[in-house]
Amino acid sequence: MDARLAAIRDTVLARNPGEGEFHQAITEVFESLGPVHDRHPEFLHGAVLERLCEPERQIIFRVPWTDDQGQVQINRGFRVEFNSALGPYKGGLRFHPSVNLGIVKFLGYEQIFKNALTGMPIGGGKGGSDFDPRGRSDGEVMRFCQSFMTELYRHIGEYTDVPAGDIGVGGREIGYLFGQYKRITNRYESGVLTGKGISWGGSLVRPEATGFGTVIFTNEMLKTRGLSFDGQRVVVSGSGNVAINAIAKAQTFGATVVACSDSSGYIVDEAGIDVPLLKEIKEVERARLKEYSVRRPGARYVEGGSVWDAGATVALPCATQNELDGGAAAALVRGGVLAVGEGANMPCMPDAVAAFQADGVLFGPGKAANAGGVATSALEMQQNASRDSWSFEHTENRLTDIMVGIHDACAATAEEYGSPGDYVLGANIAGFVKVADAMLAQGLI
Ligand code: GLU
Predict the structure, then answer these.
(1) Distance in Å, CA 164 to ligand 1 centroid
(2) Atom of ligand 1 nearest to the CA of 111
(3) Among 79, 164, 200, 294, whose Cα sits 20 to 30 Å from the Cα of 107?
(4) Which residues does 54 contact at the CB level (< 8 Å), separation at least 6?
């Protein structure tokens, strides 16, 4: 890492002790930015990096609620409003027991660059809670969401901060959150949240967008080598919204997706995963993935273990951060993997990224490859602002154009800075330069 940037990085890390994922995200970005600062000394003079690493605002609050047994439960709520140079803070809410300030900051920091890459007018933010929705009734989830919004409402708005979903937050939770916001404010302010239901201000394609976008981006990477998804053997980790839609799109593009996972184990289905069955089990019944192998002839379930052992020519990690380590990367490389597209945020550990890149594997980092979700959220905001709703086809075409644009911008930037094919460097520099320019123009704030 460039010595000037290393000094700034060390100060940032010391100021944010114990936030390992945030440190990891910062280090990865800083490792790309040396050549930018050689060309743009004004970024150093303007302390752009120091400012970018300090969130504009961090909100932490108590979320009390009552469970079905009448017991009081206390959770912690977060919203980190990281950077508003390009637009209102934008980013999802994650409900998962692992959520803490460091996790929310890493996600918010990544979101700044991701959102910049989309070309849409959105800043970066993230939030969530350590609430665990698993095993909770609809009533419990509703009461939790209402309590969460009873504090959050004062901080958000269509011109201020626009949350959406992430792990543990889907259409059901966005519905309860929107209802409570509307009730408290007495405003039908559609643009305050994205990921809404289609009859009350949502956008077609938003549920599919992150997974679809990851596959579209990865397909663009494959095309640079004269390849495509057609005929590939694909393994996807996770079995939530991103994973399911990545599986569906990869199969539409002619691939066979042979495996996916949840936190207990993974399924292998050599005939190609049956998406309607997977959706029924995961989205309608909210059951465990193991159930798939019970109902699908020929499929098997592996308790524990690593889904990457199923072997793939294209790997799409779509579960969560740091899920794919150097050992798994080495196994994928030995098995002849051609491309890896991150559907989740930072799923590949640094040594895994290094292993892929050392072997010439096409590697699409999350802030580029999974930007389709937030990009389509911005399209939802556009439809809300114009009180319009677009067709599936029109919206999907917009998503495709955005993903191809992100791919091309990352590739062109990597080339311009002397590292052709390095999508990590290309994404970091292209995203950073856009935000840095806007921050300098807006003065010392
Ligand atoms: N949580 C998603 C992400 O990581 C989507 C955020 C949004 O739509 O605002 O980008």
Answers:
(1) 6
(2) 10
(3) 200
(4) none
Question: What are the residue ranges in the chain where pLDDT is below 50?
Answer: none
Cβ-contact 324, 317 below 8 angstroms? yes
**Domain map of the chain by residue range?**
1-54, 55-188, 209-369
Element (H, E) at 279: helix 275-279
Residue 341, pLDDT score: 98
Nearest CA to ligand 1 atom 10: 374
Q: What atom in ligand 1 is closest to the CA of residue 370?
A: 10
Q: Which of 90, 105, 126, 282 is catalytic?
A: 126
Which CATH code, of 3.40.50.720, 2.40.128.190, 3.30.300.130, 3.40.50.2300, is assigned to 209-369?
3.40.50.720
Atom of ligand 1 nearest to the CA of 376: 8
Annotated active-site residue 126? The verdict is yes
Which residues form the pocket of ligand 1, taking CB atoms under 6 Å from any ligand atom?
90-92, 164, 166, 194, 345, 373-374, 377
> Model pTM?
0.97
CA distances from residue 126 to 93, 220, 368, 432 in whole angstroms, order as listed: 6, 28, 17, 18
pLDDT of res. 27:
98
Query: So what's the pLDDT on residue 253?
Result: 98
- pLDDT of 3 reads 93
- CATH code, 55-188: 3.40.50.10860
